[in-house]
Write a structure and sequence with these properties.
The chain is α+β, with helices and mostly antiparallel strands and about 180 residues long. The chain is built from seven helices and six strands. A hairpin with a 2-residue loop joins strand 3 and strand 4.
């Protein structure tokens, strides 16, 4: 398994501590899930034609990988090449069916959310660095009627619950999702 190590200047002290925490306590699958989430975001927002371009984008986001890791990730994510607007071919997710996408989101959610707390009708989810937007998207896609909406930063999600009476139930369900 590829080990991703913090490079000097790429991670701040908090990220370095979090990196060591995740390796020791949740295993390297968290880094893999984070990398997979980032890859999906990169190919959704950029026309990535080669594995080298994908590796460069990951490195710009603080994740250094080998070509073998990129190749394995492409296979695991079931990425395919599709025609791009420029006439070339770019990477895209092969299966965008709602069930497959939700399964992938739920896996990323459970691997990246570290804690769930509340203050009144506000629920705060702490995630590993750069995973909050994926966690918020998962919450939004669950379409729970109790949740009015979410706001995501880098490692924090704010979920707004409509009625304070529903917070306890939502907290229990969220805790069950992260295991």
């Amino acid at each position: 398994m590829q080990t991703i190590r913090p490079e000097e200047g790429v991670f701040d002290n908090v990220s370095h501590i979090l990196y060591n925490y995740t390796r020791l306590n949740k295993g390297e699958s968290i880094m893999k899930s984070k990398r997979h989430a980032l890859i999906l975001d990169i190919i959704a927002n950029n026309e990535i034609e080669t594995q080298e371009e994908l590796a460069q984008q990951l490195e710009q986001n603080g994740i250094r990988v080998t070509q073998a890791t990129i190749s394995r990730d492409i296979k695991e994510l079931m990425l395919i090449k599709v025609a791009s607007a420029g006439g070339g071919y770019k990477y895209a997710a092969a299966d965008n069916s709602p069930k497959h996408a939700m399964d992938r989101h739920m896996r990323i959610f459970s691997d990246t959310v570290l804690s769930v707390n509340n203050a009144g009708n506000l629920i705060v989810l702490k995630t590993i660095s750069a995973s909050a937007q994926a966690a918020a998207e998962t919450l939004d896609n669950l379409n729970w009627p109790e949740i009015v909406g979410t706001i995501a930063g880098d490692n924090t999600v704010l979920a707004i619950v409509k009625n304070i009476e529903d917070v306890s139930d939502v907290m229990k369900r969220l805790s069950a999702l992260i295991g």
